[in-house]
Write a structure and sequence with these properties.
Layout (H helix, E strand, L loop, with lengths): L1 H19 L10 E11 L14 E12 L4 E15 L4 E5 L15 E5 L6 E19 L11 E22 L2 E8 L7 E10 L3 E8 L15 E9 L2
Antiparallel strand pairs: 1-2, 1-11, 2-3, 3-6, 4-5, 6-7, 7-8, 7-9, 9-10, 10-11
Length: 237
């Protein structure tokens, strides 16, 4: 609830700024859209901890508008979805076949849950995923529109292809700060798909994304979650 209230306050403040200012930009047939939000999972594997604002989302898209009428328009685009999931304070993910030590190998033998070594405290312990995404939504403007301006509500879908994934650890060892970044597929699904709902103005609006595809190919840590993302969008840079 605190996250939603914070997003609403940010939305109102940004809309006031946009209403009072005019920005000049090149006349190109499209807009740059930036989604900034937080990720939530419908169920948590034992290694993923969603506490606080640790699991973040950024979407960067080039989108074009196709007018259907003065009250309806279609937006379609292409871009990147950059997702981060917090892996908690006690365990992390490792990619590869487990030959010995703690951790349980899943059926694909490509990822396992490993305990954080005793005595270490991770400042960062995250799984990062990059998707190539195609968002599409139909927007209804109750008061009409010429170029997509004004109040709207939009409903549509989103399709993504996983391009890259890695874990990132940051911890202190003696007097040194150690950062490890390890590439791997981590049993992640290659594709994802879902619906999106958008509400607000062209320049600033709120969004909700619900993915229906599982995050992992096979269950991990007793669960195979699906992702939900809520946040705020800035359009028209």
């Amino acid at each position: 609830m605190k996250q939603i209230l914070g997003l609403l306050l940010l939305f109102v403040g940004c809309e006031v700024v946009f209403a009072q200012s005019e920005f000049s930009r090149p006349d190109v047939p499209g807009n740059l859209m930036v989604d900034i939000g937080f990720n939530y999972l419908n169920e948590e594997p034992t290694t993923i901890d969603q506490s606080g604002f640790r699991s973040k989302s950024v979407g960067i898209y080039y989108a074009k508008r196709k007018a259907i009428s003065n009250k309806f328009s279609c937006y379609f685009g292409l871009g990147l979805g950059l997702e981060k999931l917090s892996l908690g304070d006690t365990t992390t993910l490792q990619s590869g076949v487990v030959l010995s030590g703690s951790g349980s190998t899943d059926s694909l033998a490509s990822v396992y849950i490993a305990d954080i070594p005793a005595g270490l405290s991770y400042d960062k312990n995250r799984l990062a995923i990059t998707y190539l995404e195609i968002p599409l939504d139909i927007r209804f403007h109750p008061k009409g529109t010429q170029d997509g301006e004004g109040l709207f509500i939009g409903v549509g879908g989103i399709l993504g292809l996983r391009l890259n994934s890695h874990t990132k650890f940051k911890y202190e060892e003696g007097d040194e700060t150690v950062i490890e970044k390890i590439q791997g597929d981590y049993n992640l699904s290659a594709f994802r798909y879902g619906i999106q709902v958008r509400f607000g103005f062209k320049g600033v609006h709120l969004f909700y994304k619900q993915y229906f595809s599982d995050v992992f190919q096979d269950p991990l840590g007793g669960a195979n979650p699906r992702m939900t993302t809520i946040g705020i969008n800035f359009t028209g840079f």
